[in-house]
């Protein structure tokens, strides 16, 4: 049978047990394809690309040529443009391996799509492992110099989607620095210490504990919407990025990645206009996203790790989400 294709690489639901064994769907989303197509999904569960997060004014220069991408977020380019990878149909093949089942998704993005240079051949592999992990491997090659930055944009609520706000969730981020932003949420270029600010999640802290602090960066993001610079020993291995636990259910998620950064987004733009999978309305702060990535606007920030991919190179990265429970509150 011909593979009918897989829209946006979207993870529609993730069911995990709480500490007493009761299962809930902890991923925000819709219960039908039509809503993803028509309801202006805020990137629920999808693969974002070619460039996850923002590029200032949609413009960058590579090898002396300036490219103008779509401007779809105020004056900036966001998550790949008007029709990013979240809105493309991917080819899907089932994987069955010892210790894992999954899907291998492929998509060939033609040169010039969304005005990006180079034909980008992308494979994203989702695996559900016997260790209660979702493992995502990203792989891409190009036939001409280009830029690439891929992530998955799942929103979580560990108490169950549609159950209310995530402000009681305890977050730990393995990051001593973050990239402060300007009023359009483009990094200023500096890497600021989190110490002494509401951005410090080096010890587990409730997401809502300081979200109403009078701190300029929280005003700009209308909450947390920032890239954190991960503390890592080397550039390539999987390193701890984040751990979140929810006190009532005891559910946890631990995120490890090969990427240098993670965008922590506290669901600030959810505004009560969408009805989720379980029939409840999503309001501000009803889910959080932790998007492993290269830093936003890297093509315009020479001091940030490079997102350039050339024909002789391979883009390869991995992120693992491990689900569990804790007895502690
Ligand atoms: C990312 C961005 C946010 C927002 C969400 C999707 O997290 O940084 O500003 O665009 O995606 O709504």
* Euclidean distance between termini CA atoms: 49 Å
Unique bound compounds = alpha-D-galactopyranose
Radius of gyration: 19 Å
CATH class category label: Mainly Beta
- CATH topology title: Beta-galactosidase, Chain A, domain 5
Apparent shape: globular
The SSE order reads EEEHEEEEEEEEEEEEEEEEHEEEEEEEEE
What's the architecture, going by CATH? Distorted Sandwich
> Which class best fits the helix and strand makeup?
mainly beta
Bin the strand percentage.
Answer: 35-45%
Number of helices: 2
Fold and architecture overview:
The structure is a single chain. With 329 residues, this protein is mainly β. The chain has a single domain (5-325), classed as Beta-galactosidase, Chain A, domain 5 (Distorted Sandwich), CATH 2.70.98. The chain is built from two helices and 28 strands. The structure holds alpha-D-galactopyranose. Residues 42-43, 53, 78, 185, 225, 263, 265, 269, 289, 291 line the site of alpha-D-galactopyranose. Residues 42-43, 53, 78, 185, 225, 263, 265, 269, 289, 291 line the site of alpha-D-galactopyranose (GLA).
